[in-house]
Design goal:
This protein is an all-alpha fold and 148 residues long. The chain has helices spanning 2-23, 28-45, 50-69, 76-114, 127-140. The chain has one domain (2-143).
């Protein structure tokens, strides 16, 4: 079942990355479908504890709260995306995913400002950073994700 989860999350993040780059939004229906699939896999697989499952989702719920508190500076779709990834990855790996994506986004923002001379207010799509972070995690095998 782990191989299936790795592929499902990878495909979902790739689709979300493309949507975010071109349309600057994530489609709720797609995220909902992956969320339902994640819940079904969680029930059928039984390999993840309820604490790990809910903790993984909790990271996304915190991002959703931060989205409201920041009046949209953090995208609501990004929070929902991390709720879904938390269902598949659990708390520890989802946190690694978030931190890795934030580092990549920070490096891209620095490059955009210094080299590309973009305005500080330039909005960076975050889902491509999450996809790249997931790819890096899979290659490194963090939390057993890349052990396929």
């Amino acid at each position: 079942m782990d191989n299936v989860k790795v592929v499902i999350v990878g495909i979902m993040l790739l689709i979300c990355a493309v949507e975010d780059m071109y349309y600057k939004k994530l489609h709720v229906a797609l995220l909902a479908a992956y969320g339902v699939a994640g819940f079904v896999i969680y029930i059928m697989d039984g390999a993840m504890s309820i604490l790990d499952f809910s903790g993984g989702m909790g990271i996304g719920f915190i991002l959703i709260l931060l989205s409201y508190l920041s009046r949209g500076a953090i995208g609501l779709g990004d929070g929902i995306l991390f709720v879904i990834t938390g269902m598949y990855l659990g708390a520890a790996v989802n946190m690694i995913l978030l931190w890795t994506a934030l580092i990549i986004a920070g490096l891209w923002a620095l490059f955009s400002i210094v080299v590309l001379k973009r305005n500080k207010k330039y909005e960076i799509p975050f889902a491509p950073m999450v996809f790249l972070a997931y790819f890096i995690i899979c290659i490194n095998g963090a939390g057993g994700v890349g052990n396929v």
